[in-house]
Write a structure and sequence with these properties.
11 helices; 3 domains; alpha+beta; 15 strands; single chain; Immunoglobulin-like
């Protein structure tokens, strides 16, 4: 179990004779951060936060005997990134043990931290941070109890896989170990669902909390479109208008434009064989299923055998599939997966264009055009060029595809 080191110090209010930020606003929205970093007396610390919906503040402060202070204003409780300058944190990128994110709000806030352990630092004075920590503790218990042991199993199998790769006499072991990897991935999916459930449970019971809009925005890709709308509508009007509430509202609006009964958005791409694929031409007199997948997506590849059954069943009746893969960075793995899974029977294209080679391609990402945030996702298009149904991400269950095709073709 991870250990959290909390450094408590006294008289902090009187030990901050300076501040690195601007004056506080008169609208009682001002905050004042006091902090003490143990293990480092000098150096630079960064404090980045959103002052309002359209203004992001990047602040920094020099440590004085390990102490630091920031002042500013925020229009509502919001996240703030705090980091000590080091090889991982240079003001433009953040990460590593000397980085942490807090939820700040107007008032006096106190940060206690230790060098090389800032990721486990503590903030006092922010009720929003306390709310977030309650959710985090519940999720941490799931991680420690279920995910951490599974990661250890993965590491052991990965070591065995690397060893077998180097030994020509053990090539048969690779498929066995790969099978274990697949099983581990399925179990991980169930664990991640539990983590999502912890967030959603909080949203349901705290509709007036800024943390709820934050958690909902972070889980956009993990909940169905109908659930996203329902959860958003349970939020109070003020929370709906918050920064993260507006993020969710924007996502709902974007998805609304590409769900059932809306006109299809066309694109042009080169397929894996070098042919030019124009969706407007492909969909003439056919029902088209856009299958968004990737070679590295195990759930996608596990669906492939069933998709092949549907394709072979309805192909003669005017059913086509276009595979859209998120493999622009791994084209060799994409081609290998197509052959391994027998997916060359339908057209296969990449989600992003390669404009350096194929100047006729649509410049936008097809994933952006159809607002795809996770894989697998499938979109069924009718002969009139309208979206009939969306499956997976922001859609109905994949099982519904079978029923829909049966109702269309009558068998």
């Amino acid at each position: 179990m991870k250990r959290y080191t909390i450094f408590i110090f006294l008289g902090l209010n009187h030990l901050m004779p300076y501040s690195c930020s601007g004056q506080q606003d008169s609208r009682t929205k001002g905050f004042h951060v006091f902090g003490k970093l143990t293990g480092r007396k000098s150096g630079l610390v960064f404090f980045y936060y959103r002052e309002s919906k359209d203004k992001y503040v990047r602040d920094s402060c020099a440590l004085k005997d390990g102490y630091f202070s920031f002042t500013g204003i925020v229009s509502e409780p919001t996240t703030a990134d705090f980091a000590l300058k080091d090889k991982d944190n240079d003001g433009n990128r953040f990460g590593g043990p000397n980085f942490s994110t807090f939820f700040i709000e107007p008032g006096k806030l106190i940060i206690t931290a230790a060098e090389n352990n800032i990721s486990h630092s503590e903030m006092r004075g922010s009720n929003s941070q306390l709310e977030l920590e309650r959710v985090k503790r519940k999720k941490d218990s799931i991680i420690v109890r279920e995910l951490d042991p599974l990661n250890e199993v993965y590491k052991k199998n990965n070591a065995q896989y690397l060893t077998a790769q180097k030994d020509s006499s053990r090539q048969g072991d690779l498929s066995i170990i790969q099978g274990r990897f697949d099983s581990i991935s399925l179990i991980k999916e169930q664990i991640f669902l539990k983590l999502t459930d912890a967030d959603i449970e909080y949203v349901i019971h705290h509709p007036e909390s800024y943390i709820s809009s934050y958690l909902l925005a972070n889980n956009i890709r993990y909940v169905s479109f109908d659930s996203l709308k329902l959860l958003y509508n349970t939020l109070s009007p003020d929370i709906q208008k918050s920064y993260y509430g507006l993020e969710v509202a924007t996502e709902i609006q974007k998805t609304q434009e590409i769900i059932a009964d809306t006109a299809v958005k066309s694109f042009i791409r080169r397929d894996v064989k070098g042919g030019l694929i124009d969706l407007d031409e492909e969909r003439k007199d056919k029902y088209i299923l856009l299958d968004f997948w990737a070679s590295w997506c195990i759930p996608c590849r596990q669906q492939s055998p069933h998709l092949k059954l549907l394709y072979n069943k309805y192909k003669k009746s005017g059913f086509e599939i276009i595979g859209v893969a998120d493999d622009n960075k791994t084209p060799d793995a994409w081609r290998k997966a197509i052959l391994q899974d027998g997916l060359e029977i339908w057209k296969q294209i990449l989600i992003n264009p390669d404009t350096t080679i194929n100047r006729n391609e649509t410049s936008a990402s097809i994933g952006d055009i159809y607002n795809v945030a996770s894989y697998p996702t499938q979109v069924l298009i009718n002969k009139n060029g309208n979206i009939l149904e969306r499956y997976g991400d922001k859609g109905v269950s994949f099982e519904s595809l079978d029923k829909r095709l049966m109702s269309i073709f009558g068998y």
